[in-house]
Amino acid sequence: MLKLLVIEDHALVREGLVQTLHQLDTEVSVMEAADCESGCTILGAAGDFDLVLLDLALPGIDGLTCLNLLRQRYPALPVVIVSAYDDAHTVNRALKAGAAGFVPKAYSGEHLLDALRKVLDGTIFVPEQTLPNHNGIGLSLPTAGKSVTAADIGLTGRQADVLALMVKGRSNREIAELLGLSEGTVKIHITAIFKALGVTSRTQALVAVARQGIKL
Known about the structure:
Elements: E1 2-7, H1 11-21, E2 28-33, H2 36-46, E3 51-54, H3 63-73, E4 79-83, H4 88-96, E5 101-104, H5 109-120, E6 148-149, H6 157-167, H7 172-179, H8 183-197, H9 202-212, E7 214-215
Parallel strand pairs: 1-2, 1-3, 3-4, 4-5, 6-7
């Protein structure tokens, strides 16, 4: 069963999201919170969530600050931003902070479900109209003057292969198929990659590759 949490302060929007999310799979459990503090309380008490949907314009602790808190406390938990503020700058900030995806509130329910399925499959979702050239990473980031190799940061050849496919936007399932590995093995390699890069999410890993100019 998929276990999801929606953190959204507007009741009507929250209720609409909950109804839509029940179409994501045959068995879906959705919990609700109106602010970051309530959401963190639910996560702390219930645990084992598969995905969090997070609004940016929250009362009290704002969405980006909440995202940072969630990344620190639950580094393996995908957090998708669902917001009416979908300009490139806002999307960029959310992805750099570790969001697993960004879905504009202008999207239809079907579009939202498609985006969430991609995230659950291990892909970072970015709205095409905001970052049309996104193919794993579409962020405007500075790169280091001197490039380094994957081996320089302690990655094995296979881990470098996995990282190269991550940069191309491939999902865990696609990486497994292309490299002849199980998805479990791919996840183990990704964990090692995160550790070598000092990051806790795919987005942060891709940012690190761009900044350090890592050759793959």
